[in-house]
Amino acid sequence: MEVAVLGATGYAGCELVRLLCRHPGVEIAFVSSESHAGSSLDLVHPQFYNLFELELQPLRLSAIPESVELVFCALPHGSSAGVVPGLLAAGKRVIDLSADFRLRDPELYEIWYSRTHPVPELLDKAIYGLPEINREAIAGAELVANPGCYPTAALLALAPLAAKGLADWDSVVIDAKSGVSGAGRTPRQPFHFPECTENLKAYRVADHQHTPEIEQCLSHLSGGSVTVTFTPHLVPMARGIFSTVYLRLQRGCTADQLDQLYRDFYGGHPFVRVLPPSRLPETRLVRGGNYCDLGLRFDRRAGRLLVLSVIDNLVKGAAGQAVQNMNIMCGLPEETGLTQPPLC
Amino acid sequence: MEVAVLGATGYAGCELVRLLCRHPGVEIAFVSSESHAGSSLDLVHPQFYNLFELELQPLRLSAIPESVELVFCALPHGSSAGVVPGLLAAGKRVIDLSADFRLRDPELYEIWYSRTHPVPELLDKAIYGLPEINREAIAGAELVANPGCYPTAALLALAPLAAKGLADWDSVVIDAKSGVSGAGRTPRQPFHFPECTENLKAYRVADHQHTPEIEQCLSHLSGGSVTVTFTPHLVPMARGIFSTVYLRLQRGCTADQLDQLYRDFYGGHPFVRVLPPSRLPETRLVRGGNYCDLGLRFDRRAGRLLVLSVIDNLVKGAAGQAVQNMNIMCGLPEETGLTQPPLC
Amino acid sequence: MEVAVLGATGYAGCELVRLLCRHPGVEIAFVSSESHAGSSLDLVHPQFYNLFELELQPLRLSAIPESVELVFCALPHGSSAGVVPGLLAAGKRVIDLSADFRLRDPELYEIWYSRTHPVPELLDKAIYGLPEINREAIAGAELVANPGCYPTAALLALAPLAAKGLADWDSVVIDAKSGVSGAGRTPRQPFHFPECTENLKAYRVADHQHTPEIEQCLSHLSGGSVTVTFTPHLVPMARGIFSTVYLRLQRGCTADQLDQLYRDFYGGHPFVRVLPPSRLPETRLVRGGNYCDLGLRFDRRAGRLLVLSVIDNLVKGAAGQAVQNMNIMCGLPEETGLTQPPLC
Amino acid sequence: MEVAVLGATGYAGCELVRLLCRHPGVEIAFVSSESHAGSSLDLVHPQFYNLFELELQPLRLSAIPESVELVFCALPHGSSAGVVPGLLAAGKRVIDLSADFRLRDPELYEIWYSRTHPVPELLDKAIYGLPEINREAIAGAELVANPGCYPTAALLALAPLAAKGLADWDSVVIDAKSGVSGAGRTPRQPFHFPECTENLKAYRVADHQHTPEIEQCLSHLSGGSVTVTFTPHLVPMARGIFSTVYLRLQRGCTADQLDQLYRDFYGGHPFVRVLPPSRLPETRLVRGGNYCDLGLRFDRRAGRLLVLSVIDNLVKGAAGQAVQNMNIMCGLPEETGLTQPPLC
Description:
Chain A has ten helices and 14 strands. By secondary structure, chain A is α/β, with parallel strands linked by helices. Chains A and B meet through strand 8, strand 9, strand 10, strand 11 and strand 13 of A and strand 8, strand 9, strand 10, strand 11 and strand 13 of B.
């Protein structure tokens, strides 16, 4: 099957190329880049020298070969919404890595992304691409909205509790820590090496655009209206998200019961690893891999449950999850092309 | 005034030497080290070559010169308690950087430090050395228990709320992130560079020994019995603690009122910087300095207040605070020797 | 084909498992560890949880299944020499990642490794496993001495010049920079995170044990007796070696001629990438991959050539090269299991 | 004495403020910034909040108070040359941290900086501000050209040999490694955190503009015409330069003799620390301090001497050296305001 990657020079796009260029079921037939059209991909990302050297094209829909069946949109928020309708009209299936089709309510989009959604009529068509929750719908989707990195980590931590009605939602605090690649590839002052190394900071406190995405999915799963406190932090490392989720339970529950609940919920989902009780997740243990590791701990003194989750923000938090979605959409085994162990 | 530093080769001891060797009011007359007795300090910490080269002594009380009036104990937990009684008996004033004299209740000490306190009768005598709360008592103290690094950051974030009865204590979550120097100078697997760099993890979840120290002080300030959830994380940087504190307030409060409350509480305390509402703290902005920067943010949607606090764990979280305490004990201006700006 | 990995918990052993557990031509049938015998590999290296969980065995030759045809020895220097004779006697082919069989002259071994070689009679049998130089001999070898990380980077930079007699050997300076994983997995003071991060230092100046290994191979290739200056430095990163090689040429040569010489020499060697003249190597561009990137630059003013080479010390500098050697020994395509692009 | 800092928001300017705002002999009366004129310095560099909050002025000479006696120019190369003549005409003494007045030959400036020098007549007036070589001339200077960071480290390594005619200049190779702050504060792709961390690379190989500055000073000291090979590398750390200098000596020399030569040469120069033979320099050991640490090693096998030197590029390599020059110019003790130990 032939695929295209739009926005191939950003970090998510580049990671898509890394995963797809060795994927046994697909061939990358088209890569686009606005900023580097005309060069070869390996000029921008020299790790691909001799390995994958396709020429970067400007983004014109007519230039995408007809033979391309599926398109990965790794464009900036806002740009995707301008391109996806044309892709669908041309009969391509689309996996969109931007935020443009994640929120079902166009008003929410307008509030959090400060722009009016240009094609609100497509929002119903988009399937939220978190396979551990939506696998069946993804299989038949024409348009998959690939989840954000923070929502992926937070939702996989909370989904089993949401599905079972176990969480006291008023109590939920999500304290998330991300590596700097999550901020994208464009150089800016806060991500300039000397101001990032040996530094930790919070940003967009109580104001991050991934908040409604998390709440929408939890509300859906729990059947209620969920509001959470979500705080992102910037950590001096390139990759990785660590989410520390705090909450109270609706009713008593033993550690064993919870452990079993999580194992049952994620049974058959190869990329979620519920860790044994003696272990805790670390971001390096999933680096480069498509895994989400989960750890559970009770704070018995304070009556709180902690769920710790880690992902590689560029893999399970972006490109890897997109490939997982593609596998599901195309009837391939879900792990195809995604089995390499993390690189520690 | 002559002072001694016991345990001068650990990170806190070394930082004491850095601050004291240029302090205009004191002279370091004695430095001890169990592991490196007989060498010169600059052999262990070569940054002091040509600058401060005193010979490291084995730890015998009789070897401490009589002229030494004040002793900094930067020994491991447990060792301090064995030494402090003798120091006091010899008429020295003591600032102890270990945890041995921080908890007033010997049973708590036994629970959290897994050993029986050898001199519980001294606990009443020890003054908890957080100057922003205890300045007057510190001034007259014979024995100051210098606070832990995590408690310093957490308590300075919460003290104004505790003093005013504003916090809903059941709601308090303290998510703390620390640089690796907090783990001490002894090489161990989790702190081996290749396993630490590009990694983030939580540790001692719901089980860290600084928890009761935080609770004791908050209980004292608020007049109640406070239990908190406290989670430490390890960040790939050498120095710095970032505390993200989540809580609900007991009663409504505007952002301006809270800001004023913090400014009033810390007025006259030169080392706590309540940031303007437009700014958020970052660990690098206090590196090497004795400052604690505080930022306040409301999550209006979820009805929570966030207090963000940063310190350099080795300065305001250990050696700098100890020097601040010494200044207070000796009637020197509180900032003496501690005015150099952070090193960004 | 079944293989064994002895010393599977060190960094090289762990990296062997990462590469071999997804290698289509082999099955790991046995893993040993002295320090962790009895646990499962994923307890020591939790990235393998759910992915590869073989139990670690103590190292007894009799315990290695007869069905194992090839053994990777990733044991400490000195230990390998005690084990390899037995493995060969049992009819196994061996790839030894230690230094024990790299030097052909047992006296050199004694000088640089401070121990008498226990089985000097095996040294003639061992093939130096740098495939770009020794591919044919490797194919038929019973015992391959896998090169050191520094020698791999230095030799690939210099081999074409050595083979063509172009280098003025008296002028050769090799200034090498390595990530900290090169120092192994055992925690020690110089590799403790707080003393490693934000630091650069040289070590074993004019005294590093990889020097004679480099000289032996260059002497062999050039037909003379080569002595070089080699200086290793420690860089605050986990992986990667960067070698900056300085030399004068024996005779005039254009940049084009040199470029062509390198391209000819490495034609047909998939893992050496001679970069286009406009580019320079960077360690991150080969991270996790088995590539050696080479860049050439003239300093025309000073009359010197610079050859810059980078590898991932754990892949092309250890485990990846070992797998490449195995592929050659077993008649598999040389790139089998080693084609994943670097992880940037 | 009142001083001004032009370009106070770049890294060198900011470091000047850090050192000068606590310097007992001066008061900062004026700070300029083109990009942030109108804000307070602490808005750009929040570490100064509450500590030093002067308003940043646009750069107009007439705005500099008459009471300012000495001006630090920390402007970009090219901008300084446009400002310095006016400052001198106004009777100010000037320490220029740019490269504009370092090269005495305007043709060299044109070749390496790709612009014609606008005021070549001032070049004779400028004193090269390396105090360990030029202390007397600096004392009386109106205009000091503060050395570049790389030249400072390289020249202090080589000056004693140059002065004694001991170096075989044809053999000199300077392999230098720098932290990222050396690239300045403007965000650019190669210094974006995710592309810098865990990476090592060379840049401007055989083409760096500090080369002629090094050669000019060595030529002057040795009385000949020196050409060197100089290669800079970028290291994933914020601060620090490590220079590994390789050379052959003109004549035999024992290690003791060399050690004595260096100690004699730097006797009375408090900021150069010739390390004992058993030690080697590390960048962290001078971080934040104005020291240059030197280590000497013979490679007896290859007949080469290695001189290893480290500095903090922003202190001894820029702002600290500028303050040292100011002290000399003003008749203050050379160490005034520069005595704080490095921050490890």
